[in-house]
Amino acid sequence: MHLRDLEDDKKMMVVQFLLQNLNDADVKFNLGRRTITRLWAEAKKQKQQGRLINLTSKKRFTPRLTKRVQIDIAQIQALELCRRSTIRKLAVGIQVSKSTVGRWVHLGLSRTHTNAIKPDLTAPNKLLRLRFSLEALEYDRIANILKFKTMHNVVHIDEKWFYMTKANNRYYLTKEEPEPYRSCKSKKFIIEAHFDSFELEAHFDSFIHMGRGKNNKKFLEAL
Predict the structure, then answer these.
(1) How far is the C-alpha of 207 from the C-alpha of 213, rounded, in Å?
(2) Please, what's the largest Cα pairwise distance for the chain?
(3) Angle at 194 between CA 188 and CA 200, to 5 degrees
(4) CA distances from 175 to 11, 20, 178, 186 (A)
(5) Are 113 and 119 in contact (CB under 8 A)?
(6) Residue spans of the chain under pLDDT 50
(7) Per DSSP, what are the bridge partners of residue 62?
(8) Which residue blocks in 97-143 are alpha helix, DSSP H?
(9) In what helix (H) or strand (E) does residue 73 lie, and over which residues does it extend?
(10) Dihedral of CA 146/147/152/155: which sign?
(11) Residue 163 contacts by C-beta under 8 Å, 6 or more apart in sequence?
(12) pTM (2 d.p.)
């Protein structure tokens, strides 16, 4: 290690050790004998001159000045949205590095946004939705307020469709295993699975336990 790269505290520790013991300083501090000799010579010289031993490094620290690219909001907003979907595309579009764009995002100068397609409702669709919402309201004469119905007599139905397979699948095969062959007339003929779910509130007689009354049995059979 060069003497200029040695820490100031370690230099003083070496000199204090040398003042007490002139042997094995290189082994104790894991330094070269030449470095130890130069430290001892400098300390001895300052001591002979009647000065306090000061082994502070004279190495000057020059900070590295890097020119940061400033964000151009107008240039980014003028770029098409399809060319701003990833950091790489944005960097290519405004001709800066990916790290610069990443730094902008980290500093909050730019942000990510997940955009979802909204349903394009027509006027009849909006009227139907508004009518459905209004029909779910009822007037409470006692509290003199409008509130939503309890929906105790409403059955909520949800259905989901799932494809049994995909047009393209990735498989991990052994070295000698033959590639599987899958065929279908077209993508429209892939088998689909249909699941229905029903959700409703159970009804009970006011004085008969669940499942024991005549009305309860009819209700459970209907389910």
Answers:
(1) 9
(2) 115
(3) 150
(4) 63, 72, 9, 30
(5) no
(6) 207-208, 210-211
(7) none
(8) 98-107, 123-135
(9) helix 73-78
(10) positive
(11) 190, 191, 192, 193
(12) 0.37
